[in-house]
Specification:
Chain A has 254 residues and is mainly α. Chain A has 11 helices and no strands. In chain B, the strands form 3 sheets. Chain B has a 6-stranded mixed β-sheet, with helices on both faces. Classes of the chains: A mainly alpha (254), B alpha/beta (317).
Chain lengths: 254, 317
């Protein structure tokens, strides 16, 4: 059996399990929409948004950032799921089958990617009537970039879930990185206005590059250097997460 | 079917290096059922994790069903079924779904996987539960599902890590009946771990006692129990004042040894405890000792372990 068909089988298994408990997706969809409704007008009012023109431009600036935050909240915590399966014993059951280790991770990643794309489509559909311009080519590339970011975050999260000993360690790490990642991503406020050291920090945040790229793509600026940089950074994260995750699965203790 | 030589696994911990399994040489013939017995932390599960390719050995070799666990792990995985300590099924999924996806991972087509799943549902008496969320199953049903998942690909070797822990006696008997049937019908080789000697007795041809990562005894259940000299006879006295008289009577019984006194209880070991007890009662009676009751216990795992290590299995854990 190929790693591809194993991935498909495990994707199907994961989708079946998660479709029956859809609350996490409702939450991660509700969160960016609420931010858009409540935070965007406030930020627009204090003219924090560059080119602070009213109406359409606020959406144009905010929605790309919301897409990245939504991708983060859907993808970055799935390591806790594999940790639960590990604690329960069902991960072990998969690992004693001939299944490729990578497929065990990629089946879950595929589910996250599909979820993110559906959520992104919903957010764009809701905000387009509110003034978001959606250039077709830009939006399609933006979708690919969100998928790559989702895969990168999900794989790193899975690697942490498999590698870290317990839920306390996992959530400890997540809590520690959550605020710096969100703030320096520039999704909520323009990080370009930040002091130099903070702006410098944002350059090592993979999400910041995707935020820049999403804004460029929705503005129809396909040639912006952030477009290439963001996808490379995301794929790098994915490769690192996959390597670490597979390695961690080889040394699981009881 | 299984052959290990100097199989060793060490772990680095905060307190230095721990040898969880030390130089284990184990041979299991095709069709044989072997139980690994020992306290928690003895190295039973670590041994099983190495044999099932979940953990690479630090040193030594292990061959399972003709393949080396370190060099050909995928070949080993194709040929073994492994039922771990936890639940192989995951909450939110349904019985037939879990069986079908498990079968697909062994390369069965969608339709063949479903057919195999239905076959196993019938074999392991899970009929009517196909569409139930596994979280709603009873402990016994869930364990039978684990067994079913381990058997989807007709493996010649099956590993069971404490399969009966947490089950009520009825479910436990039920589970072992399925294991026995599988062995009878398919000639499956079985390696299991357990805390219960009665289970090892019933389910295994051979028992390997493990302590501190080492094999300290290996034999049939009867051979092992033979290492303990006799049954434990417990005499409960109506009056504490009779204790020394009662101990004296016990000491005069032919073959009695290890005589112990604790308040109103006198214990000793003697061969054939059941037939000796009436004599004990008569002797106590003629010595004027009034009894509240008597009890005879066959040697237990605890006794075998105590004899072999000088420690109680409960203290050792």
């Amino acid at each position: 059996m190929t790693a591809l068909s194993e991935t498909a089988t495990l994707f199907e298994r994961d989708v079946r399990a998660k479709l029956r408990t859809p609350w996490p997706y409702v939450e991660s969809l509700a969160d960016p929409l609420l931010l858009l409704l409540l935070f965007a007008p406030l930020a627009g009012a204090v003219a924090a948004v560059p080119d602070g023109a009213p109406g359409s431009s606020t959406m144009q600036w905010f929605v790309p950032g919301m897409l990245v935050i939504m991708t983060f909240s859907t993808a970055a915590f799935i390591g806790s799921g594999i940790q639960e399966e590990r604690a329960a014993g069902s991960l072990e059951r998969l690992l004693v089958t001939p299944t490729h280790r990578a497929a065990v991770l990629l089946g879950r990643v595929l589910r996250v990617v599909v979820t993110v794309l559906v959520q992104a489509a919903v957010i764009v559909a809701v905000t387009a009537p509110m003034g978001l311009r959606v250039p077709v080519a830009g939006a399609l590339i933006a979708a690919v970039e969100l998928a790559a970011l989702a895969a990168g975050l999900a794989l790193l999260s899975l690697a942490a879930g498999v590698g870290l000993r317990n839920a306390y360690a996992f959530w400890g790490v997540v809590t520690l990185i959550y605020t710096p990642l969100i703030v320096t991503s520039g999704a909520l406020l323009p990080v370009q206005l930040a002091p130099d050291w903070l702006y410098g920090l944002s350059r090592v945040n993979p999400m910041a590059h995707t935020v820049d790229a999403q804004r460029a793509l929705f503005a129809g600026d396909l040639a912006d250097p952030s477009v290439t940089l963001a996808v490379l950074v995301s794929l790098g994260m994915a490769a690192l997460g996959l390597a670490l995750g597979v390695r961690a699965m080889g040394r699981l203790r009881a | 079917m299984i052959r290990t030589r100097s199989l060793t696994r060490t772990f680095r911990t905060d307190h230095g290096t721990v040898e969880a399994v030390r130089d284990v040489d184990l041979d299991v013939a095709a069709g044989e059922a072997v139980a690994l017995l020992g306290p928690n932390g003895a190295g039973k599960s670590t041994t099983l994790r190495m044999l099932t390719t979940l953990l690479p050995p630090t040193r030594g070799t292990a061959t399972v069903a003709g393949a080396d666990v370190a060099r050909e792990p995928v070949a080993v995985r194709r040929r073994i079924g492994s039922i771990g300590q936890g639940n192989g099924s995951f909450d939110g999924l349904r019985v037939l779904e879990e069986l079908t996806s498990q079968a697909r991972l062994y390369g069965l087509s969608r339709r063949a996987a479903r057919r195999r799943g239905e076959e196993l549902v019938a074999e392991l008496e899970l009929t009517g539960l196909e569409d139930r969320d596994v979280a709603t199953l009873s402990g016994g049903q869930r364990r039978r599902l684990d067994l079913a998942m381990g058997l989807v690909h007709h493996p010649p070797v099956v590993f069971l890590d404490e399969p009966s822990s947490g089950l009520d006696p009825h479910s436990r008997a039920h589970l072992w009946a399925h294991v026995a049937r599988m062995r009878a019908e398919q000639g499956t080789t079985v390696v299991l771990t357990t805390h219960y000697l009665d289970e090892a007795d019933a389910a295994a041809d051979r028992v390997v006692v493990v302590d501190h990562g080492e094999v300290i005894a290996d034999g049939t259940p009867d051979q092992l129990k033979g290492k303990v000299s006799g049954d434990l006879v417990t005499v409960e006295l109506a009056d504490v004042a009779d204790a020394s008289a009662a101990a004296g009577v016990a000491a005069r019984m032919p073959g009695a040894q290890d005589i112990e006194r604790a308040d109103d209880i006198v214990r000793f070991r003697v061969a054939g405890g059941d037939t000796v007890t009436p004599e004990v009662v008569r002797a106590m009676d003629s010595a004027g000792v009034r009894l509240r009751g008597t009890r005879v216990q066959r040697p237990t795992l605890d006794d075998v372990f105590l004899t072999l290590t000088g420690r109680s299995l409960r203290d050792a854990a």
